[in-house]
Amino acid sequence: MSNFPEMRLRRLRRSEALRALIRETKVDVGDLIYPIFVVEGNKKKQGITSMPGQYRFSCDLLPKEVEDIAKLGIPAVILFGIPKKKDEVGSQAYHSKGVIQQAIRAIKKATPELVVITDVCLCEYTSHGHCGVVVNVDVDNDKTLELLAKTALSHAQAGADMIAPSDMMDGRVKAIRQALDGNGFQNIPIMAYAAKYASGFYGPFREAAESTPQFGDRRSYQMDPPNWREALREVEQDIAEGADIVMVKPALPYLDVIRKVRDTFNYPLAAYSVSGEYAMVKAAAQQGWLDEKRIVLEMLTAIKRAGADIIITYYAKEAARWL
Q1: How far lies 227's CA from each of 260, 276, 310, in Å?
Q2: 254-277 residue pLDDT tens
Q3: Cβ–Cβ contacts within 10 Å for residue 155, how many?
């Protein structure tokens, strides 16, 4: 029963100081991870048409970029590589001198304090654009595990601080954990893309990473969007296999899943605000239809309020300045 006028909830909304005093959810720059796309070559800074303000960098330009990121207080980056040569088994993904392996070394030399996370998947490296070894027009789960483990190990050997498998093969966290532990990298954590959905929000990323499948789609291994109970099974399995952090991807269309995972598991939880989320806001802002700063901070707050501890976002640099 209301006891108005004695209780007036608006009393604590009268000024920004009062609102800040009782604010329940706060986004901090320390919560953010910034994605970086890396290409082979020199002096390359290539704009991405569907993601204005985002670029592909060659390794020689990374030191300046990551120094600026570190100065903003952003604690970590996650790397995605685009090789010159692709083949059926994505061999450049686990080559000791591959584009990501070189990028790791360049970043750790320039900014040793910056946490370098590497995405582990084969889609950017395969000629067919799928996330694993294709056999009879399907991705062979078990044959892919060995290559994912090799890729993760090569990243650790190059100096990566954290491994983030995004392929959605069954058993890949266990395979990677065993490979790392068996080679003296037992202290390298794994951030698993545990509940990664087959989403239409990935379109701009596929342009950026040149990873569009050449046939079919990824619905046989990425999750079906209507399912949330299955997401809990995926998260539970990845934790059992040795994941240190679990992730839900995408973020904004799956806030309910983030909340379900947070309420079910007492584990660090990341959410990936993906390329489509970024592109929609950026396009609307460029048309003057939205207040970009206000919308972005509201989105990040919603993701944090849903239960995420960590947010991967292409808006990390802008958000760091705004916050």
Answers
A1: 12, 20, 23
A2: 999 999 999 999 999 999 999 999
A3: 31
Q: What is the C-alpha to C-alpha distance for residues 268 and 25, in angstroms, rounded to an integer?
A: 17
Query: Of these residues, 196, 282, 304, 317, which one is catalytic?
Result: 196
CATH label, 26-322, candidates 3.30.70.20, 3.40.50.300, 3.90.940.10, 3.20.20.70? 3.20.20.70
Q: How far apart are CA 84 and CA 89, in angstroms?
A: 14
SS3 233: helix
Give the number of other Cβ atoms within 10 Å of residue 70's Cβ: 18
Alpha helices, DSSP H only, in the chain?
Answer: 16-21, 62-71, 99-110, 141-158, 172-181, 203-209, 229-241, 255-264, 275-286, 292-306, 316-322
Enumerate residues 6+ apart whose C-beta is below 8 A from 151: 90, 93, 94, 120, 122
pLDDT for position 37: 97
Does residue 249 have an active-site annotation?
A: yes
CA atoms within 13 A on the CB side of 157: 15
How far, CA to CA in Å, does 224 sit from each of 199, 218, 229, 245, 258?
8, 10, 11, 22, 15
In the chain, where the domains are located: 26-322
Residue 23 CA to its chain's centroid (Å): 27
Strands 269-273 and 32-39 come out as unpaired
- Return d(Cα 311, Cα 206) in angstroms, integer: 20
Q: Is 85 a catalytic residue?
A: no
Q: Is the pTM above the cut of 0.90?
A: yes
Q: Which of 174, 249, 260, 304 is catalytic?
A: 249
Angle (CA) 41-45-49 rounded to 5° is 120
